[in-house]
Predict the 3D structure of the following.
Amino acid sequence: MAHTMDITPFTPADAARRARLEMPMLYAWLKPDEAVQAAIAEHRAQWVWRTQPKPSLPKPHRLHMTLCHISPQGDAAVEGIRQALGELRMEEGFELLLDWSGVWPHNGIAIVRPQPNAALDRLHQAVVRQLAPWLSGRHDDWAPHITIARKASGAAAPAMPPARWPVREFQFVRSWLKTRPVWHEVLASYPLQSSGGKAGL
């Protein structure tokens, strides 16, 4: 006797949703300079990791702080985002002090965090406002951090020596996460310098 199964039809909406999931991810982020990358890597080298599972450690040149995660978009939207970010008028650069590291217990991600910084908060808020047409979900629970390891549950770390990070620009980045190795493509960089006109911060 033949068995039958109820199968939900694969609709055009499903196809569009799958296509979006397969697109590269988009971010606005801050990238530390080589001196800060080296300071973070030196501190991370002092950590004690569990042997299983083996932690995933991004290379120093891949370290970054996400300002805003943008849902996958087509080429036309990418160009619109690039132009929208270019319309922001930023205050001068600022300095972050990275002085805390640890593991988030809910996801096993090891992070470095800065001291609270009003200029960083204003930059995040300005970018989120400017990109509102392309964003989904909440962005008011943002917690600034740099991911230094994944699968890091149970790791132990010494206190982090403070590292000063001069922030002079932010970047618009397209990340190809399904490639090996992962490829981060910088689409545009935006200096944090006031040039008059529209106030973004």
Q: What stands out?
A: The longest strand covers residues 94-104. The longest helix spans residues 118-130. Residues 1-10, 14-21, 195-200 have pLDDT under 50 and may be disordered.
